Amino acid sequence: TLVVLDLRYNLIEDLAIDHLANILEDNTKLRRLELDGNYYRNTSILGHLISIKNDPLLITLDLSRCAIDDDKIQLLAVLLRNNRTLKSLDLSGNSITNFGAHRLAEALHNNKTLIKLDLKRNIGRDCVAIAAAISIRNSQISSLNLSGEEITNDGMKYIANELYNNQTLKHLDLSYNEIGNRGIGYLALVLGNNRTLIKLNLFGNYIGDKGLECLIENLHFNTTLLILNIGGNPIETMSYRFTLNITPEYGWNRTETIGNEYFLRAFQNHSTNEILKLDHNHLNDHDIQHLSELLRSTSIKIVDLSSNEITDQGVKYLTDILRNNRKLTTLDLRYNRIGEQGAEYLYEVFQEHPLNKLKLDGNQNDFVTLVGIAISLRNDRTLVQIDFNGNYLGDQGIRYFTNALQNHKSLNHLSLNNNEIGVQGVRYLAEMIQKQPLNSLQLVGNYLGDEGIVY
């Protein structure tokens, strides 16, 4: 019985190939047919089809860049419908449209064997989504990056369907695609029941208020998702950013106003979220007032409010609540409109607070930045050397600085060159050194004078 037929490099054209295909249609013994190198490159497809049909040991098949169009993919789909051995199939770089990809998806609907399907660089924009859906269903992947793959609403439907019963995927990146309200609706319905996904990135799509509202309603039933990135979408209503059981990892939403207390309460009642990241969201003091109330009853450990429009009054709202929040470890307020009064609020509140990092760079003056550094330094007891040169601390700044270093028993080197430190500043340093001896102290380029040297 003929098992292998090798017809490579024989100038065979399509007409002869069609005739050969008819002859072999009912043949169940031939396991390998080699047709590479004939007049038309795509004649080799028939050989692969024979292998799929008859070879029980075929596990991996590479059909990339083989000029496969929708007609040929439908032939392939018929053979794959009952195939239970093939685990990897590469169809990248062909001419498959959405029509062909959908027929392939239908054929593989009940397939539990194919782990890897590559449909990249084809014509149809749903190709990558369909391949991803099959990977989600059949493989044990925990992370999937589909950023920038032109996934549409229809493609999103395939992915969402496979997420319904998935128990392994924890991280899904769908950023920079073409997912709109309809596509996010498919995903939202699934997320209500999903108990595996932890991180979801939807940055840079076409999700509007209606799509986000649908997402929020279903997330009320989800207790697993911790990080959701919805930045870079045309979201108009400010309050939506506070509605989630989890919160956006990044900002950059197009928002102006705040309202709708119902959505605010949805966030407030969530007890497991540890990260609140709302940078670049045009938050003003009024918004911070609402946010402060949310922080009162949550387990937030990290708060990022950088690059917003927060002033001293907004800081006061925050500090009034954070005063009693002992779980907070990091507060990022960089690039806002905080002045010296706001910095004073922060310094007062965090004097005896276990906060590890307070970031205040890019506010109204260097003094504000200094306060953030001082508080961060105070709680980092592992420091051995500090070089803080050329920062224009002045006497007032050095007071905060030395107070922060009072109990650093491990510190042995301190460099404060070119910081405009005068007599009063040296006095603060002298008091600190009495309690905290140093091996090395550098004060080059300051304003010590004779009186300062005495200290």
UniProtKB/TrEMBL annotation:
Entry keywords, A to Z: GTPase activation, Leucine-rich repeat, Repeat
Recorded GO CC terms:
cytosol; nucleus; perinuclear region of cytoplasm
- Gene Ontology terms: biological process: nucleocytoplasmic transport
Protein's recorded name: Uncharacterized protein
The reply on keyword Nucleotide-binding is no
| Keyword Nucleotide-binding listed | no
Q: What are the protein's GO molecular function terms? A: GTPase activator activity; small GTPase binding
Which residues lie in coiled coils?
Answer: none
Species assigned in the record: Adineta ricciae
- Pfam families noted in UniProt: LRR_6
User: What SMART domains does the record point to?
Assistant: LRR_RI (SM00368)
What InterPro entries does the record point to? Leu-rich_rpt, LRR_dom_sf, RanGap
